[in-house]
Design a protein that fits this description.
By secondary structure, this protein is of the alpha/beta class. It is built from seven helices and six strands. It has a six-stranded mixed sheet with strand order 3-2-4-1-5-6. Helix 6 packs across helix 7 (151-161). The chain starts with a strand and ends in a 5-residue tail after the last strand. This is Phosphoglycerate mutase.
């Protein structure tokens, strides 16, 4: 059995500004760094044998905090990045609602009806993320792996493992900054053990 701890990066400046990031980036806020420090303390007794991280700066910054005092190598990969959001990247939600109101409402409320004309599709995110997890599981059988990624990417992974349709992509719980989702790979079977856990902030 391979166990994965999937962590969303900490809060960023653009998260605070309600500005979409996608493949663009902004640094962690003080809150984001503090939450990652608390998670570091909670995870310190878990015997991770490998760490994999989105290549985005906010994920790297979070991983550096979580890996403090550990001497594990960290593998960075584009396939764990957030969904590519095309023209929306760098814009606030209010700005997007002026220019792409219908598209954005489909994206947030009716994901199965969302057509990825200038963005990456949810299906493409799912495919690259699950391909990466399967590859990691094959390389690290019976090990415990830390992964830092992003909200939509983690949602796509959960949806795929639970074999839900894209229409259920945004089902609760929300994937907050530094939340922990635990999944297991047993043979050819995937199991979701915990979703969006925030115990370290309580």
């Amino acid at each position: 059995m391979t166990t994965f701890y999937l962590v969303r990066h900490g809060e960023t400046q653009w998260n605070q500004e309600h500005r979409l990031q996608g493949w663009l980036d902004s640094p962690l806020t003080e809150n984001g760094r503090a939450a990652a420090e608390k998670l570091h303390k909670q995870l310190q007794d878990i015997p991770f044998t490998a760490a994999y991280c989105s290549s985005s700066g906010r994920a790297r910054e979070t991983m550096a905090i979580l890996m403090a005092n550990r001497k594990l190598p960290i593998a960075y990969t584009d396939d764990l990045r957030e969904i590519y959001l095309g023209k929306w990247q760098g814009q606030t939600i209010d700005e997007i609602l002026v220019t792409h109101k219908l598209d954005y409402e489909l994206y947030t409320n009716y994901p199965a009806q969302f057509v990825a004309s200038h963005t990456e599709s949810f299906g493409a995110v799912t495919e690259r993320a699950m391909f990466t997890l399967k590859k990691i599981a094959a390389q690290h059988q019976n090990e415990t792996i830390l992964i830092v990624s992003h909200a939509v990417t983690i949602k796509c992974i959960i949806n795929a493992i639970l074999q839900r349709s894209i229409s259920e992509l945004w089902a609760a719980p929300y994937i907050h900054g530094t939340s922990v989702t635990v999944i297991e790979r047993q043979g050819q079977q995937w199991l979701v053990k915990d979703i969006g856990n925030l115990h370290h902030l309580q």
